[in-house]
Each structure stands twice: as structure tokens, then as C-alpha cells.
Amino acid sequence: MKIIRTRQRPFMVVVDVVLTVLAWIGLLYLLIQGLWPLFDGHTGPRIDISFFDALNTLQVYLWIGLLNAALLIAWARYQQRKSRSFAKRRLPAPVVGDEGLSRSFKLSEDNFARMRQSARMVVHNDEHGEIREVFTHLYRVEPEERPSPLAPPAHLQTIRLVTENDGNRPRL
User: Fold this and answer.
1) Separation of alpha carbons 66 and 72, rounded Å
2) Would you say residue 153 lies in a domain?
3) Are 30 and 63 in a shared domain?
4) How many folded domains does the chain comprise?
5) Contact assessment for residue 121 and residue 135, using Cβ atoms and an 8 Å cutoff
6) For residues 105 and 130, is the Cβ–Cβ distance under 8 A?
7) What is the pLDDT of residue 22?
8) Are residues 41 and 53 in the same domain?
9) 29, 33, 36, 40: CA torsion to nearest 10
10) What's the predicted TM-score (pTM) here?
11) Domain that residue 78 falls in
């Protein structure tokens, strides 16, 4: 199970793998160099402590390593859960329909219709935060009061300006 799910470029993955392999090789080299004289008494320096004292020291190192690993895994899990809750906060708000909006602000149908028609308005709230009144700065024009649409011009003309690059083009 991957704890970190960040996508990396292929070059960075190769660098990560090479450094990890080098670290493991270095660890194994140090372990072998430190433990080999304990098992082979004929070559290398003689150690004045007994085999069991060396195993006790190694056991302390292993316990410290296990505690370190447990702390790192616990910290990674904590960060994973924390980032999941942050991701939930970043999600877009759920879409509220007209009925839900009217219910949450206790809007009358008349005020809701006025709010739908105008982009600029003054909203008055009461002490509980509910919408009491809506004033729009526009007034509604009934269809019979609307002016007639403008007619297109009878003769469309195109105006063409002469430029320096028009030397070999024919005139219209």
C-alpha cells in the first residue's frame, strides 16, 4: 500500500530508486563489517565482549529502529487522514435548488422572483438573518410597453480604407 501517492517524473523515480538501493547496500555493508568479526574469531580484531552482550546491543538497535518505524508510520497515517479532511473542505458546495434556497432564507415567492430578475439589488435582513425585503433598482417593462426593435439600414455599405499594401489590388 502506497502512503504517498504523488506522481513523479520518470527521472525522479530512477534517482529515488538508485539512492534507495545505495542506502540499502551501505546499511548491509556496515552490518556485515560490524557483525562478521563476532562470528569469525580467527580473522579480524578480537572483541573483548561476549557474543550475548553484542546481541543485547543489537537488540537495542532493533528496538530503536522498530520504534522509529512505528512513529514514522503513525505520522504518515495521521497526515493522510488530515489531508483527506482538508480535501473534503475543498470540494465545491453542493448545488441547492430554488426550493432549498427559498426554504433556507424563508423567501416569499415575490422576493425570490425579484432576486432572480435583477443582478443589482438591496436585501434587508431581520435580526435572525432571514430575508425580509428585496429592492431592485430596475423596473419591469410589460411587453406592450416595450419599444419596437430598430430596423436594419436599407442600404448596407462597406467602407474600405486604402493601405500601403494595396498597390496591386483592384479598386472596388
Assistant:
1) 10
2) no
3) no
4) 3
5) yes
6) yes
7) 92
8) no
9) 140
10) 0.29
11) 49-91
